[in-house]
Amino acid sequence: MHLLDRVVYGAPVSKWKSLKNRRLQNWGGVVHEKGLLPQDLPPWLTKITQRIYEESGLFPSAINHVLINEYLPDQGIMPHQDGPAYFPVVAILSLGSPTVMDFIPHSRLRTCTDSGDNDVKSEGSGEEPLKIETDKKMDNHHPFSVLLMPRSLLIFKDNAYSDYLHGIKDSEVHQYDGAINDAEPLVSHKFDQPLLEPGKAVQIGK
């Protein structure tokens, strides 16, 4: 796959940032609490983001920020929200191995009953994970999962963005609708559209 082998993995080593359970590349600038410190996207990314922007019709303006996440087998990311800077749209382009993304109702939609063991956090917040309680679901919000196939594009927005957390289990084997897949290296692109005003941005990625 040209995009994966020649472009993503052909990037300088210094472009990769290693985190606990994955490594990533950041293109388009740095998102912080006051908005985006912008940088131009390279031509190969601009070609992709412009096509998504034009053909989806879901983004208020052109995409100007991209996160590329690499997950190896037995790596994932805990349920999280991408934060107000990226509201109201997230798009995830998947490369490599099939994987399953889980969506969990946000804790504010729940009435707490018993203490549980599900940790969640806001992506990039720097805060410790929060304990979510075992509870009764409200407003017909229920957990669900989406199978992300190689070269697939997932876009979610509005209530799916604000009312749910999304994550990938740390597992070498992913199951979906009775099928089992042995995980291989996975690369996801989060194409974001952080606007210059605080609290305004859009993410596409995986």
UniProtKB/TrEMBL annotation:
Pfam families, A to Z: 2OG-FeII_Oxy_2
Keywords: Dioxygenase, Iron, Metal-binding, Oxidoreductase
Domain Alpha-ketoglutarate-dependent dioxygenase AlkB-like: 25-170
A GO molecular function held by the record: metal ion binding
This protein's record includes keyword Metal-binding: yes
Taxonomic superkingdom: Eukaryota
Any single Gene Ontology cellular-component annotation: nucleus
UniProt record similarity statement: Belongs to the alkB family.
Name recorded for this polypeptide: Alpha-ketoglutarate-dependent dioxygenase AlkB-like domain-containing protein
Species this protein is from: Hevea brasiliensis
